[in-house]
């Protein structure tokens, strides 16, 4: 009897699943051009569902029962059509609307987008709606995303690991300080939104342990001319007004966007200018058995930057769009580092000696990125092909004067003096070719394609012993000239399907990589070649309109930065330096997550992240020679599991609230005898709040706060950090004028510190980056308003532009 009941129950469940039908279709005008965002209402026996078409005129109604329906289709400037539809199976229809003969007056529709939109696949942060991001740079805008942490040299997801950065879908091949400065060169006024892609599908590059950050730049969809201008003034708030004899820490910024759109042509551009005077710094403490070294490094820099984004798209036909875009700029950092390193005797508590280093720097960075693309929509069923060709160049030069002195208490003057002059250069050239196709099949939507990537990175560092101001002697021990090439060929296939209450997406990406590093200085070649598979999977079940359950898995890769592979030495003091490792290998990450979403407000998730062959910069201290050097090595295997909660509170129309909590445990195992295994818990809390003071939402304030409890950071343990950002904004002149006042890192508490033990010697690294400042921003929007002239049908495709 029991088996019979089981079979009957399965048959009942199966029949109920198959009873869920789908109605899909397209809405076009009489010229067969798609009508984006047309309104549709589906009625049946008193029940009613509404939706809109997407940017290419496609719509869908799901989870329908068999029966007779009425479908009403509306679009401004067109006659409404009511169609009778009888559903007995999944059905697809084509709707053609006729133009209305009535002359319409101008209609302006203002739709407010929430600052944060969170779902299973990604979190979208609408920068243009964020008060605390207004007037800032791209790096600060990224740091405003709940759950995303920005440190001095990397961007991570709270509790999950490192994120890779893309701009308009193209991976930025920079890391560390170069990446931070690149993002800082962009204005938040140039950015439309930032996407945190949690589990990228196979059509994305496999880089990024915990996922991807995709920065999408602005491109207006309004017909005719439109744009905006913005001016910002920033003042850093320090505990002391004068540091190393300098003061007046400020920033000035101006940016502008200009767009022009017609039925077939879209042209867009933005310009950003920066000038500032700021501080950078860190401290490294080393606790030897007999001595304690306390090394502080304070950088005093001025920054000058120009950044340009420009592009054009042209619609050759209703099915084909071509485009060209450019992103580039020039950034100059002029400054100096003051390094002070007192050495204390642990027995007496007195100073044994003091190392003092003063170095000047003049790095100049040029970046140029060009994209050419073609998008072909073969028909209205979704068949399309996208072709992209990209060239990226990053060229940076630097020159430095370096002087280090040793002082002993009781002795006049320096007992030891070391002086160097050096020049260095980095030249990165990257060529990529990519083809992506989408093909609807009876089994689901099949996406497949490939990518070719060719990377060449040349760098050098030439050191000279400085005898006096005029006489220089080439130093062969410190100098280095290095060339690195990396070529990758990728193929992928991804299948997505929705059936009843279920949604499936599975994909596989294959990457074949060849690397070659050559040191001209020591005539040494290092080669590597590997083939890796990167699967991805998503299974989602919509139990009812309020509950969704999903499971995802994905495998990712984190490749070393180019500087990490370069064996050159970068001096900190006469006794400390950093050095790359040409034998460094990529690390791999496997991510698993089970999540539940309730009413699109509450998302709960269980996750597991496993990192193999992990690498990190480690500081090796040798008390026998007093030498301290930092280098990256592969030595880690990490297991991190935890639970995350995201909740959007929607109690009041005047409050926009989003909260996140992530609790996790980390086990880090070392393959090197120099490091002990370590484990521990971590907790991250965040709350983003926007309060509107009037019904028109023209006067508002924001308060964003996050708190990071101590956690395991690679093979060390970090301290507690937290950050409070406040903002106040007002709109005037029909919401075209925006005035915003922000205070960033109000409590000056976001600087990180990590304590590690290497060969039994305690080390503590503290980043005292100065993040507290007040900023006033004024922006004005101008241009034509959206009227009866409708938008073209390629907004989704144009959103991929660079």
Count of distinct strands: 45
User: Which structural class matches the secondary elements?
Assistant: mainly beta
Number of helices: 5
On the 0 to 100 scale, the average pLDDT is: 86
Low-confidence runs of at least 5 consecutive residues: 1-19, 102-111, 786-802
What percentage of amino acids are in beta strands? over 45%
Q: What's the gyration radius in Å? A: 29 Å
- Biggest sheet overview: 29 strands, mixed
Inertia-based shape: globular
Query: How much helicity do the residues have?
Result: under 10%
Q: How many angstroms does the end-to-end distance come to? A: 64 Å
List the keywords.
single chain; 802 residues; mainly beta; 29-stranded mixed β-sheet; 6-stranded mixed β-sheet; 5 helices; globular; disordered N terminus; disordered C terminus
């Amino acid at each position: 009897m029991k088996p019979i009941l089981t079979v009957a129950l399965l048959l009942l469940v199966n029949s109920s699943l198959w009873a869920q039908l789908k109605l899909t279709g397209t809405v076009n005008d009489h010229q067969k051009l798609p009508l984006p965002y047309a309104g549709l209402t589906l009625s049946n026996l008193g029940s009613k569902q509404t939706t809109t078409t997407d940017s290419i005129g496609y719509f869908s109604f799901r989870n329908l029962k068999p029966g007779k329906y009425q479908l009403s289709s509306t679009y401004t400037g067109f006659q409404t059509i009511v169609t009778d539809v009888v559903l007995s199976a999944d059905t697809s229809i084509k709707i053609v609307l006729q133009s209305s003969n009535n002359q319409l007056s101008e209609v302006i529709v203002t739709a407010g987008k929430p600052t944060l939109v969170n779902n299973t696949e990604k979190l979208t942060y609408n920068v243009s709606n964020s008060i605390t991001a207004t007037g800032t740079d791209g790096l600060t805008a990224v740091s405003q995303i709940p759950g995303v942490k920005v440190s001095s040299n990397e961007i991570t997801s709270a509790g999950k690991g490192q994120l890779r950065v893309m701009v308009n879908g193209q991976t930025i091949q920079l890391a560390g300080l170069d990446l931070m400065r690149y993002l800082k060169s962009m204005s938040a006024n140039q950015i439309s939104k930032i996407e945190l892609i949690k589990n990228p599908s196979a059509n994305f590059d496999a880089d990024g342990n915990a996922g991807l950050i995709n920065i999408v730049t602005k491109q207006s969809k309004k017909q005719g001319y439109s744009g905006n201008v913005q001016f910002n003034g920033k003042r850093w708030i320090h505990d002391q007004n004068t540091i190393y004899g300098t003061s007046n820490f400020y920033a000035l910024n101006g940016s502008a966007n200009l767009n022009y759109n017609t039925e077939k042509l879209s042209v867009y551009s933005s310009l950003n200018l920066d000038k500032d005077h700021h501080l950078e710094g860190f401290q490294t403490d080393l606790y030897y058995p007999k001595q304690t070294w306390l090394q502080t490094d304070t950088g005093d820099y001025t920054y000058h930057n120009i950044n340009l984004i420009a592009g054009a798209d042209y619609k050759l036909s209703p099915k084909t769009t071509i485009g060209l875009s450019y992103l580039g700029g020039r950034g100059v950092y002029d400054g100096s580092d003051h390094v002070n390193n007192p050495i204390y005797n642990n027995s007496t508590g007195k100073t044994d000696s003091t190392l003092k280093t003063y170095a000047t720097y003049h790095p100049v960075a040029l970046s140029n990125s060009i994209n050419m693309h073609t998008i072909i929509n073969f028909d209205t069923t979704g068949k399309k092909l996208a072709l992209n060709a990209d060239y990226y160049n990053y060229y940076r030069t630097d020159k430095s004067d370096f002087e280090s002195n040793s002082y002993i208490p009781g002795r006049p003057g320096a007992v030891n003096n070391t002086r160097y002059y050096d020049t260095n250069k980095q030249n990165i050239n990257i060529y990529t070719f990519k083809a992506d196709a989408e093909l609807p099949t009876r089994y689901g939507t099949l996406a497949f394609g490939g990518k070719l990537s060719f990377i060449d990175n040349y760098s050098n560092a030439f050191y000279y012993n400085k005898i006096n101001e005029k006489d220089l002697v080439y130093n062969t021990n410190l100098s280095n000239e290095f060339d690195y090439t990396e070529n990758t060929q990728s193929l992928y296939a991804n299948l997505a399907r929705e059936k009843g209450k279920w949604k499936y997406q599975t994909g596989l990406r294959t990457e074949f990589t060849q690397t070659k590093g050559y040191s001209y200085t020591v005539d040494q070649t290092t080669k590597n070649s590997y083939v890796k598979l990167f699967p991805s999977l998503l299974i989602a079940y919509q139990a009812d309109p309020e509950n969704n359950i999903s499971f995802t898995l994905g495998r990712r890769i984190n490749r070393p930065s180019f500087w990490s592979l370069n064996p050159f030495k970068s001096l900190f003091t006469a006794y400390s330096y950093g050095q790359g490792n040409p034998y460094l290998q990529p690390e791999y990450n496997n991510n698993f997550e089970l999540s539940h979403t309730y009413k699109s407000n509450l998302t709960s998730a269980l996750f597991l992240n496993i990192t193999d062959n992990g690498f990190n910069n480690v500081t090796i201290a040798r008390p026998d020679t007093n030498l301290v050097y930092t280098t990256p090595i592969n030595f880690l295997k990490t297991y991190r599991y935890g639970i995350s909660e995201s909740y959007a509170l929607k109690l009041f129309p005047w409050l926009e609230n989003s909260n996140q909590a992530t609790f996790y445990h980390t086990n880090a195992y070392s393959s090197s005898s120099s490091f002990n295994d370590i484990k521990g818990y971590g907790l991250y809390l965040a709350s983003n709040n926007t309060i509107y003071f009037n019904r028109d939402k023209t006067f508002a304030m924001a308060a964003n706060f996050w708190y990071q409890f101590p956690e395991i950071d690679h093979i060390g343990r970090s301290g507690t950090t937290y950050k409070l950002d406040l903002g106040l904004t007002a709109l005037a002149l029909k919401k075209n004028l925006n005035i915003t006042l922000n205070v960033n890192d109000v409590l000056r508490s976001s600087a990180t510190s990590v304590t590690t033990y290497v060969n039994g010697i305690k080390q503590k690294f503290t980043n005292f980056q100065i993040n507290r400042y007040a900023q006033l921003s004024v922006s004005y929007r101008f241009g034509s308003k959206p009227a009866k002239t409708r938008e073209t049908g390629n907004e989704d495709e144009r959103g991929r532009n660079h």
